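How a chain folds remains the central question behind the approach discussed here. No coordinates are needed to read the tokens, only the vocabulary itself. For completeness, the protein is quoted in full, as a sequence line and a line of structure tokens:
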Amino acid sequence: METENMEKGINNQFNKELQLQIEGTLPKKHIYSLGYPGINLLSAGLPNLPIELSAEKLAKKASLNYRNRHPFDLSDIKDLPKAINNPIAVFNSTKFNDNSKIILTSLQHNGNNFIVVIKAHVNPLIRKANVNVNDIKSLYPKDNIADLLNLFRSGNKLIVWLDKEKAYDFISTQSTNLIGSGDKAKDSIINIVNNFKNIFILRY
């Protein structure tokens, strides 16, 4: 109960600070504190370190002028701490030796789910001291659904944790045109999800 109240408090504080950024009154150098990974993220391999997000990075990612052009409304990521600790799925990065985790959340912008990319490292933009944090490197609504479905297709190669019920819902609502061979391919991905087994670890 104490942990639940703490997580609720962190989520509420994030929402209050996010509203200040929406209103333009949050200091530009502000660092959002999203608490610590819960059991789902710990089980996915995130270290038990603080999760942090730079307000500057958030503003840049949401901007229409950002080079990768995944603009979104800041209000779309309300309840972000809660969303990342209760994800649809978590994957290892597809980049060799990157050690980042890709978190597929239930948050959406125009029907596209947000992904959050986290890497544990020393971020000199956030901390001057030599302290590791779970730094949110990127977050945006993923409009390339085929890429997400390929992450599921990878099975144990990239999947490190998933909520089967949420994963079923996500996959079943996608157009069969995006999955190559239609319903047969969709069934194949659902079968991969069905056979995946989470390995839970206790919070420490």
